[in-house]
Predict the 3D structure of the following.
Amino acid sequence: MSNTLKKVFRNSTYFLCALFLLNGCSPGTNKNKADEGKVETSGTVDTVVIAQMQFTPAELNVRTGDTVIWINKDLIDHDITSDKKNSFYSDTLHVGKAWKMVVKDSAGYHCSIHPTMQGRLILK
Amino acid sequence: MKIINTLTKTAICLVISTGLLSLPSSAQKSQKLTDPEIASVAVTANQIDIDYAKIAIKKTKNADVKKFAETMAKDHQAVINQAVALATKLGVTPKDNTTTKTFLAGSVKTKAMLNSKTGNAFNKAYVDNEVAYHKAAINEVENVLIPDATNGELKALLQSALPLFKGHLAHAEMIQKQFSK
């Protein structure tokens, strides 16, 4: 393989990996009812890090239409489950994975696998 | 792969060939543990809680207890996997030691006790033991394993596992309340 071909192949691989990672940050369209309906998506993006058995920040001030991304940087799998029944659920969020949701309302949430882990989205 | 096999064999052999001693305590400790010994303790302690969880999954009909036990099995396996991966990376072969033997000896008694109970008595015994076991494990990690670890990555893994064990303890205490009424 020539150097040019190798370069093209390598760049394509990087691009595909980037696409894959972006796609891996699932919007949770199947189970996230907060994403359904007419939801503004032009808000800001906030991140909640899951590490050491905690959501950080545990309380997040948000506006309707903001996107919140949870990133699992812990040793083990977690999930994001709304305290209000059937409101939103991330499904199991494996180590190193992320899940995002567009905010519709204030909400308390927890990890259903480790129920002592709790967080809250508070509308400004 | 050789190290993974060694770890697994070490854990299995020690589970089978146990003495009858109590849970370890930092007060009983006379010598500093080496990193290979710490790796052995870490794998063994996690494996013991998986063994307890397997008994609970098989015996309990309580949904909260079953879910908790399933979480214990999964989480502690994840910690073992990471400990094995790190040991492999560092070229550390886990080494059997007094602390490992003590943990295993205690587990033999506990497994016999759990296997002798049924129904709600089993649920209470399992959850009570989870509270006590996680307290003992947290004490060991905080006061012995982390201070004794010389390798930075091993120390960091132990430090990052500590909040997990504390979370498990809080979860067990939460379930324990339904059996203390």
Summary: Residues 119-148 of chain B form the longest helix (30 residues). Confidence is low (pLDDT under 50) at residues 6-22 of chain B.
